[in-house]
Amino acid sequence: MRISVSEAKGQLTDLVRRAEAGDEVILTRRGHEIVRLVAVAAAPGLKGRRALMEKVRASAATKVLQGPAAARSQDFLYDDDGMPG
């Protein structure tokens, strides 16, 4: 639904209800789209956050590349005597 800002002033409660119900509500000014009313998604609960973190961890584990250990990562900068090379 597209509606001008001036018309929306008197219908705000109805427009908010429509947006909460999932309808797309777009406010226009001089025929140009300027604002989209959308419902705010509910914050996930503890179980939802935990599931999201597990998903992120699993995804990150598949992207890990094997390489030198971090403790040895700058060895190429020094010679056998520990002096800058």
From TrEMBL:
Give the matching NCBIfam families: phd_fam
- Annotated InterPro entries: Antitoxin_Phd/YefM, YefM-like_sf
Instruction: Relate the protein's function as given in its record.
Output: Antitoxin component of a type II toxin-antitoxin (TA) system.
What's the protein here called? Antitoxin
From which domain of life does this come? Bacteria
Q: What family, per the record?
A: Belongs to the phD/YefM antitoxin family.
